[in-house]
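Task 17 of the worksheet. Students: predict the tertiary structure of the chain below and write it out as structure tokens. Keep your answer in the requested format; marks are given for formatting as well as content.
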Amino acid sequence: MTESENKNTTKNGRTPSMIASLLVMGLMIALILLSVSLFGGGVADGPLQVSMTLATMFALCVAYYYGFRGSLISEAIAKGINGTIGTVFVILAIGTVFGTLYLSGSVAAFVYYGAAIISPKFFFVTVFILASVLSMLLGSSLTTVGAVGIAFVGLASIMGVNPAIAAGAAVSGAIFGNKVAKISDTANLTVATVGGLTIDEHSKVVLRTAIPTWVISALLFLLLGFFGGSGSGAVDITSVQDTISQYFNISLLAFLPIIMIFVLSGLRFSAYLSLMLSAIFAVVLAASTQHDLIVSMAADPSLGYFEAVLKVGIDTFTNGFHLNSGVEEIDQLFSGGGVAGMLTTVWLVLVAASFGAVTNYTGMLQRIISPVINWVKGPASLVLATMLTSIGMNFATADPYTSIVLTGQMFRQEYIKESLKPVMLTASMADSGTIFSHIIPWNIHGALFAGTLGIATMQWAPYTFFAYLTPIVTFVMVYFYYLHKDKISDRDDAEKIYGAEPTELPESTQLA
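Model answer:
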């Protein structure tokens, strides 16, 4: 071996052993479980981030032991974090829009009218249906939960029903559109990673398993509305409406910022622009409809009204909205949002991305997954292995996008060997890891939803029925029917159908 080759081997390092790789993953899981047991619902306010940081430090020590040096590891981490920048900006934009939706009276109007219209018995299924429709239109679970989730969770408290179940229903509906919509980022990335099919073909295939899963989920939410999910007791709605009217000017105009989010998204504006432009519009609307509220929040008689609007608007962007009515229930309901309130979520996304980058770059993930691929014996076990790997990748990398790329690359050749159509691979990935990413507390989706809804992931995740049912329904349908239907004919060349392995993947459109 030449001196140059020897230097390169030392610089790049050796793939860690199976034992070392399992130790890294095991420590991460152990630290997370310890944090959850010690801090419960407050785990995402810092303890979870510290756990992920410690796990990353241990992974770095293992990487160093196996010869990976700082500069290359730093580059890998930087690349991993760079891939989350679009999501980070969306997280901050969601915090901004939340605060301004409170300020403009949008949430207040939603609660005011919703409390009088929606029956508690049909509350959960209504949330699920509306979130499903909106997510189909937007193609984004992040934007859907950001736009309507907080209003439904707030309304749940007023209706005397369980806010955690309402959150689970909102996230379930948001997942539906993220899975089947043709404009979904994750759907398009899945198709691009596998190759050999179009987004139309992929959407058609995932829809066939999404429909029965959606129906079962809707029935479960309907049953919960009739037989469970009640809180401590319904609040006097008339009294609540009277109290809301004392602090907010209630009118249908308050729904304009929410409508604007949908319109801009429908016009293919990025998630970031849709949210930020709507937040700015919400402040402008508040200036014309919430005069008394803005003056009281500015708390400075020396300021002109325009100056008061600027002060309150900037403070709401930064620190969120906090109503000081003196009524504890109302103050809790109308408080939240702001960029500052989302910083712990951003912290979690960054450290989780760092951990995923280290374990991926050093080959720890591949080391753990290799025995799974070797275990595959036939098409049924291949689909099962794909789904389990995709879910596991989301636990390990905390990033659905990285999970999609890694799983697709690792299993693509195996599907060609088994002569299964490309849609079998894309559907197996879309109906497992991409779905589960929404309910993993340290994943981008799970962390964002917890920060958005103000409820710990572990509290609402048990009620996200669509996430749990999808892999089960998909595998059953594949096993009994689609393994035969989606088999490539012996007359056709599987290699030719799949084509060359994709080298260029679509960029995220969250900031564009």
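Marker's comment: The radius of gyration is 24 Å. Residues 124 and 350 are 33 Å apart (CA to CA).
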